[in-house]
Amino acid sequence: MTFSPPSRESALRAFWSRHWFLVCLTVCIIAGLSVGGGIDSGSHVRVEQVVGGIAPKLMVSLVLVLMSITLATDDVKQAIKAPGPAVWACIVNLALMPLFAWPLSLLQTTDDFRLGLLIAASVPSTMATASVWTRNAGGNDAVSLLVTAATSGLCWLVTPFWLRTLGGNVVNLDMQGLVVILLISALVPIIVGQILRQWSAIRTWVDARKRGIGMTAQCCILTIVAWASFQGGPQFTQGSEVGALAFLVVGACCIALHLAGMAIAVAGCRWAGFSRRDTIAVAFAGSQKTLPIGILLAEAIGLPLALFPMLIYHAAQLFIDTSIAARFAAGSRTSQPSAAKDAVDQPDPEKPGEQEDRHREPG
């Protein structure tokens, strides 16, 4: 038998299948910054007027509806009955990460980067990617959606507190407007998705197309990143005077902050004895941060380069967590056969029908 090496075409297909999102993410960031920084201010304003309200808000809402409608209602109920993982993820996301960010903010050479890093640390958990990455990694995406809803609901109180406490009294936010945006963009889509799922025809249709729906959600995330990069284009041009070292420092701090949040989230889960699926969800939901709310806050404080730490943090978490999700997924696939065998060999004597009905939803 002779061994024939894979053709270049098949190798490219395999590479694209594994890394298409990272390739597209790189293109979106570079293209967005280049276009946003290369056009005149008048054209930039006209583009913002046409699609400014559509790109981030509608895309975020659409992603959350897609994630919620494909999420088994029984999983949501179970996550609510056992709230420990979601509570721990909220503590990491809204309390510990701002505290981690404070000493890192003191390393920044400009007020823009200092406050921008604090914004990145104090905004709620990401409204989309935590659930997408959790599902891709084989985790409990019901927990990540609960964290999204909870942190978004508390953000109007927690985020201004941290910005004023750690960043000084230089932030003036429209609290009422922020609450409305969070409710419409985050909480309502999750509820709508679960309501739609109660129709058996819709549930059957989406369950048969989960992979395609997941890829659609990732494409929406790319749209959000491209729009944020476009908005940051003019600031990037202005930031050429800041110096490369300042950008390197804030970039390194963003990466360190994200990894620290994920490490403490996983360590807490292991100490508490949470399941592997819950640990995966907490790792992503506890350490990821939402980009649209970060953009809103960066614009509100009036410092032109404050957007960049948020943009760098978001891009870094997507690159890093794509690799981490693949590792989690590989581990989940390895553990599934033994877990399934244990479930068969050791049924619950008090619930003989539990194995068959665990994931069944009412029609």
Number of strands: 0
Q: What's the SSE pattern?
A: HHHHHHHHHHHHHHHH
Could you tell me the mean pLDDT? 78
What is the multimeric organization of the chains shown? single chain
> Structural class from helices and strands?
mainly alpha
Layout of secondary structure:
Layout: H1 8-38, H2 41-51, H3 54-69, H4 73-81, H5 84-105, H6 111-122, H7 129-136, H8 141-167, H9 175-197, H10 200-207, H11 210-238, H12 244-272, H13 276-287, H14 291-301, H15 307-345, H16 354-357
Keywords:
16 helices, 363 residues, disordered C terminus, mainly alpha, single chain
Q: What does it look like?
A:
Helix 6 runs parallel beside helix 12, helix 6 packs antiparallel against helix 14 and helix 13 runs antiparallel to helix 15. Helices cover 80% and strands 0% of the residues. The C terminus is likely disordered. The radius of gyration is 21 Å and the shape is globular. The relative contact order is 0.17. The longest helix is centred in the last third of the chain and has 39 residues. It is an all-alpha fold.
Put the structure in a nutshell.
The chain is built from 16 helices and no strands.
